[in-house]
Design brief:
alpha/beta, 29% helix, Rossmann fold, 313 residues, 8-stranded mixed beta sheet
């Protein structure tokens, strides 16, 4: 497989503020289709969520490449090697607009000269919300996979209270970001919190959790301010959508009224706005599917669904 790293100029908001996002286009030596999978990370995660650097067993990028499929991985606005605008400008809608611009480049050959006839968004947690929002607003993709979420059924509210409840704290309070350009309105998880909310520890190696703390990223006040209103758009997605997460996903359970995950998904399936929505709960896993020992089983579930809806052979 070959990976090309590229910084791509992006216009943000109505004032067309110029930023850049760092991208990684991975194309296998023998491509099996002209479909590109655009990977959208969750809150406090950079592109490394999808391409875990300390153990290739957890890399979705590698899994897809070995299956013959191309992926576009990137650092969202406010994260990693991409631009870090003022936090209030880094909203769910702004992130969705970035995804739309990347999709347009993918179809036009603007990504390293490669062009793709079909595009599938693969999101995690906040990245699932961003992916669904982008698909609903722009209608320019062929399918969406939303992991770490129950989709439109999530009971998130604008200005979600997780920060006040201690799930996050100001990035300026964290030693990792204290001297960075993540100023007011940037948040991250305090020490020890990630194990509580992201993992089902019987299914995770201790080394993964310690690496996760070391590699953690941020979330913005702009994103938090739109969690509820943007979630309402997800029911408007018209292409095939898979919603999937682990049976011990504490975030999905909390946003579903503290019900068991299987019950949250059961209720979501009952209220699905169309037959294009599918739901799957994965056993013995928590919120972060890519970092559990059973990650390959999650990837296989996603691939089987993609095969069912005609996105892969």
């Amino acid at each position: 497989m070959h990976t090309e790293q590229q910084a791509i100029p992006i216009s943000v908001d109505a004032d067309e503020v110029e930023c850049q996002v760092e991208t990684w286009l991975t194309v296998p030596a023998q491509r099996r289709s002209s479909t590109l999978f655009v990977l959208v990370s969750g809150s406090t995660y950079s592109h490394l969520y999808w391409d875990w650097p300390t153990d290739p067993r957890y890399s979705y990028v590698r899994w897809m490449a070995e299956s013959g499929h191309a992926t576009l991985n990137f650092d969202r606005l406010g994260l990693g090697m991409s631009s870090h605008p003022p936090a209030k400008e880094v909203t769910v809608r702004a992130q969705a607009a970035v995804v739309h611009q990347l999709v347009s480049l993918a179809r036009s050959g603007g990504l390293g000269g490669e062009s793709f006839s079909r595009v599938v968004l693969v999101g995690h947690s906040l990245g699932s919300l961003i992916s669904g929002t982008s698909a609903a607003i722009y209608g320019d993709v062929d399918a969406v996979i939303e992991t770490g979420t129950s989709g439109f059924a999530a009971a998130a509210q604008d200005g979600d209270a997780r920060v006040a409840e201690g799930w996050m704290w100001p990035a300026t309070s964290d030693p990792k970001f204290a001297d960075s350009d993540r100023g007011d309105g940037y948040f991250t998880t305090p020490p020890g919190m990630r194990e509580r909310i992201f993992f089902h520890m019987p299914g995770v190696e201790d080394a993964v959790v310690s690496d996760d703390e070391r590699l953690k990223e941020t979330m913005t006040s702009g994103e938090i301010s739109e969690l509820g209103s943007m979630a309402e758009l997800l029911a408007e997605v018209r292409v095939p959508v898979l919603c999937t997460t682990g049976e011990y996903d504490r975030i999905v359970s909390a946003l579903g009224g503290d019900l068991p995950v299987w019950r949250v998904f059961e209720l979501a399936a009952d209220s699905a706005p169309g037959a294009n929505f599918s739901f799957s709960v994965l056993p013995k896993m928590g919120h972060n599917l890519t970092q559990h020992r059973k990650a390959p089983a999650a990837y296989a579930t996603m691939t089987n669904w993609l095969r069912e809806v005609g996105m892969v052979e």
